[in-house]
Amino acid sequence: MRALADFVQPTGSQHPDASAGRPQALRRDARIRGKSRSMTMMTAGETAANTNAVSNDHTDDFVRIGEMAKQFGVTLRTLRFYEDKGLLNPKRDGATRLYTRRDRARLKLILLGRKVGFSLREVKQMMDLYDPTGSNTRQLRLALEKSEKQLLRLQKQRALVDDAIAELEHAMGAVRTMLAERTPAAAG
């Protein structure tokens, strides 16, 4: 059965190292365990992505918070916020958040919904109707209904913006005319 998540295209903002075999921090940790011990500065995203290393047998199924943030171009705080709101439900390995394929699909839907102007409440309402064993017609109908309403809102906003642009262009033309009339002709 096809569901709402089936219609979301990959964003293309995949981090180039996201699919690499061994995480960079693990390679860095191996170097640090050697003879020379130097401190390497990392961003918050790298730190979160690279703490509490998970065994390699889970790396294909799970993504850590830093990797997830990089893949989707969001902050760690955003992911935690979505988790607090019940939009994402990562698994835990100690203090490490492990995001599943389902979480990644849900984040794609959240970001798409936010991009087109849905509230998080509306996005959650649509996603919560997903039933992996059902036809999901209720979810699809709700998504279509909300999308039609949002499309009308966006079209009205576009019309208002187009009107504002036209008025501004008209005003700028009048100012240019007034300025040209008041500027003395260049002697030549």
Give the terminus-to-terminus CA distance: 78 Å
Assembly state (oligomeric): single chain
Radius of gyration, taken over Cα atoms and rounded to an integer in Å: 25 Å
Widest β-sheet, arrangement of strands = 1-3-2
Shape: elongated
Average pLDDT number: 78
- Given this structure, which CATH class is correct? Mainly Alpha
**Would you identify the regions where 5 or more consecutive residues have pLDDT less than 50?**
10-59
Beta-strand content: under 5%
Discrete helix count? 7
Helix/strand order, N-terminal first = HHEHHEEHHH
CATH-derived topology: Multidrug-efflux Transporter Regulator, Chain: A, Domain 2
Instruction: Give the total of beta strands.
Output: 3
Biggest beta sheet summary: 3 strands, antiparallel
What is the SS-derived class? mainly alpha
Written account of the structure:
The structure is a single chain. By secondary structure, this protein is mainly alpha-helical. About 27% of the residues have low confidence. It has a single domain, classed as Multidrug-efflux Transporter Regulator, Chain: A, Domain 2 (Orthogonal Bundle), CATH 1.10.1660. Strand 2 and strand 3 form a beta hairpin. Helix 2 crosses helix 3 and helix 5 crosses helix 6. Helix content is 55%, strand content 5%. Strands 1-3-2 form a 3-stranded antiparallel sheet.
What keywords describe this structure?
three-stranded antiparallel beta sheet; mainly alpha; 188 residues; 55% helix; elongated; Multidrug-efflux Transporter Regulator, Chain: A, Domain 2
